Amino acid sequence: THAASLCSAMARHAGPRLPLIVKNLIPTLSSVFDSQRITTTAFFAELLNSNVVNDLILLETMMDNMTGRQKDACMLVRMLALRGLGNIASGSPEKVRKHGAKLLASMVNGMDDKDDPHNLVALEAMSSLSKLLDHVEERDIQSMLLHIAIRIRPFFDSEQPDLRQSSIVLFGNLTKFSEGNCEVFFEQILNGLVTLLLHLQDPKPEVVKACKFALRMCGPNMGCEGLCDMFLNHLREDRSLHYGEFMNNVCKHLMQSYPEMLNRLILTNLFYFKSNWVDIRAAAPMFIGFLVLHVDEEHCQQVDLDQLISGE
């Protein structure tokens, strides 16, 4: 935070001197002291939040230095470097398009960080990627779309609310790019659908809000107008939700449009019978009940009753 306030003050008042300050700070990015690398990376990350780096033709230099920190031994430095790269979306949005492929690759690497026990680097990568997506070329994201969707999926059920929120918001943002990969991405939507619907009962309001957003974004890609309308009308942020009634109607549309999905939807729900969150644990059997209620007889044979009964 000190770096943030110092930096915004310098961006406003020390413009002409910044190139020299940046030039003198670059060597400290390779300092043997973690504290120096952390402070300089934090300072650069904040500086990238301002358009002044663009005006002073510092953007490329600083971006290369942030990218270079991705292999830093210190986790905090790696996290701050990703924050800096994500900040380009607000500081110099017009430059994101030009460097899109490179920035996206950095975010994907951040999500795959192997030495990140508390997923702080992954969290930064996901929130930065959400910021960048509005400005990248579609072709740059297309090739990574599937990898990212699969990679973030486990975070939907993380014990950490900020990871649940960030991954779900990112998933919603990714759906904007699904048209070229419609069938492939539709599969990802089906994989996440039960989780997103159950987490509408999440104990954290910010996660519920993220689920509403993601489902509204998924709706148009599902090829079912009734479902799309329901998500848009009932999952507005300012509207409270009557969950049971909503799920009853959702299941009716699901079984009219995708009756062959019944068993798959049931199996995913069974997993949540053992959820740590009581409201989600309660929502899963209700979800299954409504699915079975609305499926026609010929598709009912899909249900493995033994499995359902032993899922208690």
From TrEMBL:
Name the InterPro entries for this protein.
ARM-like, ARM-type_fold, HEAT_Maestro, Maestro_heat-like_prot
To which species is this protein native?
Eudyptes sclateri (Erect-crested penguin)
Q: Which GO terms describe its cellular component?
A: cytoplasm
* Domain Maestro/Maestro-like HEAT-repeats, first and last residues per copy: 64-310
Q: What is this protein called?
A: Maestro heat-like repeat-containing protein family member 1
Taxonomy, superkingdom: Eukaryota
